[in-house]
From TrEMBL:
<protein>
    <recommendedName>
        <fullName>6-phosphogluconate dehydrogenase, decarboxylating</fullName>
        <ecNumber>1.1.1.44</ecNumber>
    </recommendedName>
</protein>
<dbReference type="GO" id="GO:0004616">
    <property type="term" value="F:phosphogluconate dehydrogenase (decarboxylating) activity"/>
</dbReference>
<keyword id="KW-0521">NADP</keyword>
<dbReference type="Pfam" id="PF00393">
    <property type="entry name" value="6PGD"/>
</dbReference>
<comment type="subunit">
    <text>Homodimer.</text>
</comment>
<dbReference type="InterPro" id="IPR013328">
    <property type="entry name" value="6PGD_dom2"/>
</dbReference>
<dbReference type="InterPro" id="IPR006184">
    <property type="entry name" value="6PGdom_BS"/>
</dbReference>
<keyword id="KW-0570">Pentose shunt</keyword>
<comment type="pathway">
    <text>Carbohydrate degradation; pentose phosphate pathway; D-ribulose 5-phosphate from D-glucose 6-phosphate (oxidative stage): step 3/3.</text>
</comment>
<dbReference type="InterPro" id="IPR006115">
    <property type="entry name" value="6PGDH_NADP-bd"/>
</dbReference>
<comment type="similarity">
    <text>Belongs to the 6-phosphogluconate dehydrogenase family.</text>
</comment>
<dbReference type="Pfam" id="PF03446">
    <property type="entry name" value="NAD_binding_2"/>
</dbReference>
<keyword id="KW-0311">Gluconate utilization</keyword>
<dbReference type="InterPro" id="IPR008927">
    <property type="entry name" value="6-PGluconate_DH-like_C_sf"/>
</dbReference>
<dbReference type="InterPro" id="IPR006113">
    <property type="entry name" value="6PGDH_Gnd/GntZ"/>
</dbReference>
<dbReference type="InterPro" id="IPR006114">
    <property type="entry name" value="6PGDH_C"/>
</dbReference>
<feature type="domain" description="6-phosphogluconate dehydrogenase C-terminal">
    <location>
        <begin position="178"/>
        <end position="467"/>
    </location>
</feature>
Length: 475
């Protein structure tokens, strides 16, 4: 019998997804550049289902029923191009190549166009959920031609996570749409983690709580509107004791955060699209600052100035932090969904934002109760200008706004950095401002560069003759 799906690239992600397909009853053809990985998978997990072992790309392709479906799970970048080239030479028009790696969406656009020329379908699929998700049900964000989804969708939906029987997988849009949405998902994940980090920092340094006590706070928060995978694992990480020292593990880990690059991609793309994703950008830069070890070591004795007193009502301040975290999180998601809308408009993807919230409810790192509210908001108004304006989120922010301001003020007077809390509040105040200082910016731009400005009282573009008689002319 032939295989319904082939997986090439059998490192941790690829082997777990191959096992996931097999456990769902599909016959899976296996291929890896070095055969040892294929054999190791078969030796350890061959009993998970029906696998076909292959050594060469030709054998691999010959093992598949038509239209052939091949999932590539190799290292993103040049390795992916090399594998695509080899596969494309061996495959026939109508066959489907899926890239499940973390590809940059512009690479996916390029690859899709090249393969379309050859009559092949190319599906760039974002897959979230790490190793565990790959095995037990990830969130899958497939892009590519809609017609390929007819042949591929049922398989991907079968192995995806389910929430209320709904698969966490749907066709996102043409060419790079799936990888774009996966990228923004990762950016939001950065913002979410940074906000949680700032809440932890305040509980630790403003209230003086130890790791175990902070773990308890997060565990309680996980029973309310903040309920999510990231809040849940935060409590578990904080509760972990280091075997060697007996201290909380978090107090032993070096405070320099690393990054693999998807957060940076999100911010770069947002800069090009002109979308203010301040929460994600602050998160990426906060990781960079934490990793600036030379500067941090040299700056240790810089003055903090006169600091304020720590809050005395610890219960109230804990609640303030929770409210600030929730409000800032709403802002970060609002910004991320704005970026999805902008990317969708720029590339003609027609992405359904309610559907994206739906497929992020399970399987992925940012899975949360909160995503149901986002889905409802976009279902009620698909053209919603900002998530912040949906009644549910508007009310949630209104309920927490005083807390949010107290947290930003208190953190500032205590000298505790809160880049994401602070910038999210400024973004919110910026959106609601009646008059921003941008009028002055426009005046300056017109002064030094004759860039012109619009007037509040009549249409058109105008320029003041700054180096002449200061009269105004229509541009
Ligand atoms: P890696 O990203 O570590 O890639 C290892 C695989 O790539 C091995 O199968 C290796 O084959 C193969 N490979 C390389 Br490297 N260069 C190759 C080449 N030139 N030709 C053919 N094969 C090549 O594996 P991973 O961590 O399982 O991730 C796979 C993909 O999934 C990546 O794009 C990753 O970004 C993405 N992803 C990972 C996660 C996660 O949590 N790890 C989550 C979501 C997405 P070999 O065995 O012969 O060396």
């Amino acid at each position: 019998p032939l295989a319904q799906i082939g997986v090439t690239g059998l490192a941790v992600m690829g082997s777990n997804i191959a096992r996931n397909f097999a456990r769902h009853g599909y016959t899976v053809a296996l291929h890896n550049r070095s055969i040892a990985k294929t054999d190791a998978l078969l030796a350890e997990h061959g009993s998970d289902g029906t696998f076909i072992r292959t050594e060469t790309i030709d054998e691999f392709v010959a093992a598949l029923e038509k239209p052939r479906r091949v999932l590539i799970m190799v290292k993103a970048g040049d390795a992916t191009d090399a594998v695509i080239d080899e596969l494309a030479d061996a495959m026939e028009p109508g066959d489907i190549i899926i890239d499940g790696g973390n590809a940059l969406y512009t690479d996916t656009i390029r690859r899709e166009a090249a393969l379309r020329e050859r009559g092949l379908h190319f599906v760039g699929a974002g897959i979230s959920g790490g190793e565990e998700g790959a095995l037990n049900g990830p969130s899958i964000m497939p892009g590519g031609p809609a017609e390929s989804y007819a042949a591929l969708g049922p398989l991907l939906e079968a192995i995806s996570a389910k929430v209320d029987d709904t698969p966490c997988c749907t066709h996102v849009g043409p060419d790079g749409a799936g990888h774009f949405v996966k990228m923004v998902h990762n950016g939001i994940e950065y913002a979410d983690m940074q906000l949680i980090g700032e809440a932890y920092h305040l509980l630790r340094d403003a209230l003086g709580y130890d790791a175990a006590k902070i773990a308890d706070v997060f565990a309680v928060w996980n029973t309310g509107t903040l309920e999510s995978y990231l809040i849940e694992i935060t409590a578990e990480v904080l509760r972990q004791t280091d075997a060697a020292t007996g201290k909380p593990l978090v107090d032993v880990i070096v405070d320099a955060a690393e990054q693999k690059g998807t957060g940076r991609w999100t911010v770069k793309a947002a800069l090009d699209l002109g979308i203010p994703v301040t929460g994600i950008a602050e998160a990426v830069f906060a990781r960079a600052l934490s990793g600036s070890r030379t500067q941090r070591a040299a700056a240790r004795d810089l003055t903090a100035g006169t600091l304020g007193a720590a809050p005395t009502d610890t219960a109230q301040f804990t609640e303030d932090i929770r409210a600030a975290l929730y409000a800032s999180k709403i802002v970060a998601y609002a910004q991320g969904f704005d970026q999805i809308a902008a990317g969708s408009a720029e590339y003609g993807w027609n992405i359904d934002r309610a559907a994206m919230a739906t497929i992020w409810r399970g399987g992925c790192i940012i899975r949360a109760q909160f995503l149901n509210r986002i889905k409802e908001a976009y279902d009620a108004d698909p053209e919603l200008p900002s998530l912040i304006l949906a009644p549910y989120f508007r009310d949630a922010i209104e309920a927490g706004i005083d807390s949010w301001r107290r947290v930003v003020v208190t953190a500032t007077t205590l000298g505790i950095p809160i880049p994401a809390f602070g910038s999210s509040l400024s973004y919110y105040d910026g959106l609601r401002a009646e008059r921003l200082p941008a009028a002055l910016t426009q005046g300056q731009r017109d002064y030094f560069g004759a860039h012109t400005y619009e007037r509040t009282d009549k249409p058109g573009k105008f320029h003041t003759l700054w180096s002449g008689d200061h009269s105004e002319v229509q541009a």
